[in-house]
Design brief:
The chain is of the alpha/beta class and 242 residues long. The protein has 6 helices and 12 strands. Strands 5-4-3-6-7-12-11 form a 7-stranded mixed beta sheet, with helices on both faces. Strands 1, 2, 8, 9 and 10 form a 5-stranded antiparallel beta sheet that branches.
Length: 242
């Protein structure tokens, strides 16, 4: 939960800026101690509404009032929300990403979601592309829900998508190869690299809907599933109990 990303260790930010300026980019490589090396196609970070998965499209449709786009990246979701005539504030801890968003006409700011000096109010908080991943670990969920309550208006909402990644640990017979002593199976670690720019390792959380609902209930929020995605993913809506 760093306040900002060190620009010399911000591979995604540099990839976003290069793609925006040059129209192309090299590989954005992703490493994890739990999985093999992967890659994020940088072009997908600039996708249009038509190119977004169903849960992201539905989230944009449901946005209302003043919107906070958390971890906004290139600003693709903010741009679509702006087309609806809504006011959007996009935040990210990446300086190059915020620079690109500003050039795209977005009210973008270098802000950490958990920074309590940022105390504006919003009708919708959007956390697309598994935005709840910034929580890092299950144990930080109460802090996340408390922060949500601070930022939402009386009848505000949080729209977030995530995935139940237990399928990764499923054996051919349907049993799960999960080490329960190792903590929640959706707690992963990642590190990114773009060209010679190597990022620092960070925690990232994928959470199944039932677990999300349980923790939300304990912290005074209601959680409803809006839609299921195409591959163990879903869109959820959080509201504060009154």
């Amino acid at each position: 939960m760093n306040s900002t990303t060190n620009i010399t260790k911000d591979p995604m930010g540099h990839a976003i800026r290069e793609y925006y300026r040059m129209g192309k980019a090299a590989k954005l490589r992703v490493f994890s101690s739990q999985f093999y090396e992967d890659e994020i196609p940088v072009a997908t970070l600039f996708r249009s509404f038509e190119e977004m998965p169903p849960q992201e499209q539905e989230a944009i449709r449901r946005c209302s009032g003043r919107v906070l786009d958390v971890g906004a990246g290139s600003g693709c979701h903010s741009l679509e929300i702006m087309k609806k005539g809504l006011e959007v504030v996009a935040i990210d801890i990446s300086e190059p990403s915020v620079e690109v968003m500003k050039e795209r006409g977005i009210d973008a700011r270098i802000i950490n979601f958990f920074d309590k000096t940022f105390d504006e109010k919003f009708d919708t908080i959007l956390m697309a592309m598994n935005g709840i991943g910034i929580v890092g670990k299950i144990e930080h969920l109460p802090e996340f829900f408390m922060r949500v309550k601070q930022l939402l208006t009386t009848d505000g909402q949080v729209l977030l998508d995530s995935s139940d990644i237990r399928y990764i640990f499923e054996n051919e017979d349907g049993s799960l190869d999960i080490d329960l002593a190792a903590g929640y199976y959706g707690e992963l670690d990642y590190r990114m690299q773009y060209r010679g720019i190597k990022g620092e390792t960070f925690d990232w959380l994928y959470i199944d809907f039932e677990t999300l609902s349980m923790y939300a209930e304990q912290c005074g929020l209601m959680c409803e599933k809006c839609i299921d995605g195409e591959h163990y993913d879903y869109l959820a809506r959080l509201t504060v109990k009154r």
